[in-house]
Design goal:
It contains 1 helix and 28 strands. It is mainly β. The strands form 7 sheets. Strands 1, 5, 6, 8, 10, 11 and 12 form a 7-stranded antiparallel sheet that branches. Strands 16, 17, 19, 20 and 21 form a 5-stranded antiparallel sheet that branches. It has a 4-stranded antiparallel sheet with strand order 2-3-4-9, with no helix packed on it. Strand 11 and strand 12 form a beta hairpin. The structure holds calcium ion (3 copies).
């Protein structure tokens, strides 16, 4: 069972793989990169790839394909065994041993979860249940996180694999590790100068709906000036109380689903939040958040991710909708609320006066307008239908738009 290179053929990806043949690139930065060329594919029972991450002649990991029968059911299985004191990136949330795969640009380092990886499952499949376990089924160009121990020092690295959905074939393509002990590495980084992906700018957040969930949270930012070094962005919501301790290492190690991935468009970005917060909790009303944007390095022109400064704190509320086009965050200065069928508009900052107050109905017709010079203002709405009304307040500092629900009728 322990023979290496039982099956070997070109995969579709080898054509675009690097040109070095089984060699370590000269040290650039401190990443030692090895291209497997051609890529090697395994699909017979007992096939095994012996991975020597630092090419010192000591095998560090064994990746195995096996078929067997358990209680009469045929099983196919692809698994990894870390050798000696080495470890694999682990999915800490699972009880059974799963090797976790990550996308390009995910940081691997001391903040990641590592385990011995004995029999660590990439993917299994049984025809009986038409299913199986493991996170690697159908993986294309996914990265296995690796923690290597050499002479008492810890190094971090990765290996790139494809794994078939039915757990009957895997292909290994290349691997790399960081020569500097304890230094994190970006999945997919192959060397080159240590250059950071560019930071975004003008980050702003807004409450644009009343669903009480992530769809209410709009995030806008200007793209990185040098966006060609960026693979994609990750928008992360952190509870405001935890934001002070949030750093690029933590941000880069988050599992997918705990951040909103935003692909480059070449333009500035404005879109709804689409994921859980950084703790895996749903976005909800009345919880203060700060938003961060991680610029994920492309792994070739840049090898370090960059984390933005936090946004202003935002707390989603029902009945408070802030115009995303606000040039200035006026939300804390202007309070709009309902008192029966009166719209109250309170100004806490004199710089917002004089202000023009306009009220629109749901059909977009303006039904009230006045100019206000006092910090407290009341707009009495008689003989109206019940429903949502839009209040637009134009001040010397900018404009805000807020929705207010009124009961209707002639009473106050
Ligand atoms: Ca080795
Ligand atoms: Ca290769
Ligand atoms: Ca809201």
């Amino acid at each position: 069972m322990k023979k290496k290179l039982l099956r070997k053929h070109l995969s579709a990806y080898s054509a675009i793989a690097g040109t070095l043949v089984g060699m370590i690139q000269p040290a650039q930065g401190a990443i030692q990169y090895t291209d497997i060329d051609p890529d090697v594919t395994y699909n017979s029972n007992g096939d095994e790839y012996e991975l020597d991450l630092n090419n010192d002649g000591t095998i560090d990991y064994k990746i195995t394909y096996s078929t067997f029968t358990t209680v009469g059911i045929p099983v196919k299985k692809i698994s990894v065994d870390a050798q000696n004191q080495n470890k694999c990136l682990w999915d800490s949330g699972k009880i059974i041993e799963l090797d976790h795969n990550v996308n390009i640009g995910t940081y691997l380092g001391p903040f990641s979860t590592w385990d011995w990886g004995e029999g660590g499952l990439l993917k299994s499949f049984t025809s009986y249940s038409y299913g199986g376990g493991g996170q690697w089924g159908g993986a294309v160009d996914k990265y296995m996180g690796l923690q290597l121990e050499v002479g008492g020092n810890i190094h971090y690295g990765w290996a790139r694999l494809d794994v078939h959905s039915f757990a009957d074939e895997f292909t290994i393509k290349d691997y790399a590790f960081e020569d500097i002990p304890d230094q994190s590495i970006l999945a997919g980084a192959t060397g080159g100068a240590v250059i950071s992906a560019g930071a975004i700018s003008n980050l702003s957040v807004a409450d644009i709906g009343d669903n009480g969930d992530k769809s209410d949270l709009q995030v806008s930012f200007d793209k990185a000036a040098d966006e060609n070094k960026v693979d994609h962005y990750r928008v992360i919501a952190v509870k405001a109380a935890d934001a002070g301790a949030f750093d690029v290492g933590t941000a880069s190690a988050l599992m997918s689903g705990w951040y909103t991935r935003v692909d480059k468009t070449g333009a500035n970005i404005s879109q709804s939040f689409e994921s859980l917060d950084r703790n895996g909790d749903p976005i909800e009303n009345d919880t203060p958040y700060k938003i961060f944007v991680l610029s994920v390095a492309d792994g070739t022109q840049a090898t370090m991710n960059t984390l933005s400064d936090p946004s202003d704190e935002i707390t989603l509320k029902d009945g408070v909708i802030m115009n995303v086009a606000d040039p200035i965050p006026l939300d804390n200065d202007i309070r709009v609320y309902r008192v029966h069928n009166t719209i109250a508009v309170d100004f806490d900052q004199p710089g917002n006066l004089p202000a023009v107050i306009k009220v629109f109905n749901a059909q977009g017709q303006m039904i009230h307008q006045n100019v206000q010079n006092q910090p407290r203002n009341r707009v009495v709405m008689r003989d109206i239908n019940s429903g949502l009304y839009i209040t637009v307040i134009e001040t010397p500092k900018g404009m805000v738009t807020k929705k207010v629900y009124l009961n209707g009728g002639s009473g106050l």
